Amino acid sequence: MTSENGTIKEQTALAVPSRSLAWRRRRDSAARFWRQYRAHRAGLFGLAALLLFALPALTAPLLVGDDVDNVTDAPGGPLEGPSAEFPFGTDQFGRNLLGLVIWGARVSLLVGLLAAVLSVAIGTLIGVTAGHFKGWYATVMMRITDWFLVMPTLVLAIALATVMPRSLLTIVVAIGVTTWPTTARLVRAQTLAVETRPYIERARALGGGHRHIMSRHVLPNVMPLVLAQTTLIISTAILAEATLAFLGLSDPTVVSWGALLQDAREAGAVSSGHWWYLVPPGVAIAVVALAFTLCGRAVEQVLNPRLGVSR
Predict the structure, then answer these.
(1) Which backbone phi and psi does 105 adopt, to 5 degrees?
(2) Which residue stretches of the chain have pLDDT < 70?
(3) Cα(first)–Cα(last) distance of the chain, in Å?
(4) Under DSSP, is residue 305 helix (H, G, I), strand (E, B) or coil?
(5) What is the pTM of this model?
(6) How many CB atoms lie within 10 A of CB 91?
């Protein structure tokens, strides 16, 4: 009994240093990634732009309040130009456009992130399994992927958003299930390359099953590609959300940048010259999409040095 207790204590003592070593390696890897990321000026600019939008979006309830979209108790008059009281002017109901843009950032960024995660999750699942199993399964999955690739993504998203109830969940699903094919093809190509490495053969020889090989050996090696692809798809998802909201397919009770553009169009801001109604949400969409693209390119070059480094 004493020997058994001694063995358990020894195993516990060995497990603690191993966990500490694993955490130290993760910290060193994160620090190395940040040092290499800082070498990309475009990536730093994109990260700074994202922080500039993300921080006000997270603190929007404190900055502008929860009633910024209230049309019955608007603080200003309809379509007032920019002033000291309303830096971005007011909309057709007299609401403060600066507060609406800040509040809309919460919705646009959230929908973009969720849609990108859904898209990458579907693409990664199909890419890893198609690259691992091959045969008829890979053939069927890749033909489905090719079909989605040749179909216009926006048209499919509009079709899904039209037949489903109007809500943010519908927008997330419509974008996520139509933008995954590129990720699937990239991940499958990387999976095929990983499957040819010697340690995969050793894992099979030692009795490793399909689930073990895909989760413990293949997936960790394709995760850098998945991470870079996620940051790139977020910009596409934000643009798609703005387009669907502009077309009136989003939840009409939710404030987003695309919904603000739709309100401006309905109010005749283009023909009447009320430029302040259009410019803030339009510039916000363009800047955030560009920022995510710059961050994605920088992450991609850090994780794959063969792409070269742009200073």
Answers:
(1) -65, -35
(2) 1-19, 22, 305-311
(3) 64
(4) helix
(5) 0.83
(6) 26
